[in-house]
């Protein structure tokens, strides 16, 4: 097991990464205010891992109740959130009861948001079971649900007390989901860690082959990068916004195509290529840099052509983005490989040209 800490003063918390951690109730029990927890999961993960997690907690003296929601981004809604509140209320959960989110990013985001709201805040723990959740969404305290007009537009910052990333859960992850997680891993190299990007270029096939040592290294280095950014800028007032490379375009794809049509990591990959194209258009990246990014995404089995939405649709959807300030669209772009910036310098015409360059149909 490898461990690191997200340093947030008295709200600091550990991230544990390793194999056979789901049954380690002893890692969870010391962080609980009372020996009772609600495990939130989904109908795909529950048959695979719920018994293992609940059994480990029972052995540690913790009573659990559970709720399995339907699986999919399209269920990240108020209706699903109310089912969580119903379960908490029916089972007379208290403010000191802990909510444990067992699943991917959708479960983690909804579980965290429910925990932030229930009785004005209850503790929660992240037990991510997808690569994308283990390297990104489980760390940092961003929680949310979707709205028909925009992804993750309704939510709260609510930090977990622990992130427990059991790499054994990746054994059952579909290939498409594994690749989606690689998009977020590549992001860290592009925005702030050029040596990591170079490592990924040399090891991407090992990751696709699910080699445990390679996966553990990629997860640890990704979490270390995110932990450092979150510690410096918890509420995304500055540096943390750089973690959204490709996300403004990607969220437009997810919303415009219908939630669940594209996986989040797939949309981020295509969005990152649009951002790279725009960075080149501004004179910051060389054409060879854009080609280098594209080659890595192709090797990771990720889409490099953006969804065939109109430029007007992209711009309209992007104006709902959380980084819009004073009516101006701010984008995360690349000054160079390993160096991202947040800027509002790009014009609509330049953004449109980058979108057209990356769309499947031009």
Shape: globular
The biggest beta sheet is recorded as: 4 strands, parallel
- Succession of helices and strands: EEHEHEHEHEHEEEHHHHHHHEEH
Number of structural domains: 2
Q: Tell me the β content.
A: 15-25%
The number of distinct helices, counting runs of at least 4 residues, comes to: 13
Tally of extended strands? 11
Could you give the order of strands across the largest sheet? 4-3-5-6
What is the terminal-to-terminal distance? 47 Å
CATH class of the largest domain: Alpha Beta
Low-confidence stretches: none
- CATH structural fold name of the largest domain: Rossmann fold
Looking at the chains present, what oligomeric state does this protein adopt?
Answer: single chain
Binned, the helix content reads 40-55%
Instruction: State the CATH architecture of the largest domain.
Output: 3-Layer(aba) Sandwich
What is the gyration radius calculated from CA atoms?
20 Å
Mean pLDDT, nearest integer?
Answer: 96
Short description:
This protein has 13 helices and 11 strands.
Can you lay out the helices and strands and say which pair or pack?
Elements: E1 2-6, E2 13-18, H1 25-28, E3 36-42, H2 46-59, E4 63-69, H3 78-90, E5 98-103, H4 105-117, E6 124-128, H5 131-137, E7 142-147, E8 150-157, E9 163-166, H6 175-192, H7 194-208, H8 212-232, H9 247-257, H10 264-281, H11 287-299, H12 311-318, E10 331-336, E11 339-343, H13 348-358
Parallel strand pairs: 2-9, 3-4, 3-5, 5-6
Antiparallel strand pairs: 1-2, 7-8, 10-11
Helix pairs in contact: 3-4, 5-6, 5-8, 6-7, 6-8, 6-10, 7-8, 9-10, 9-12, 10-11, 10-13, 12-13
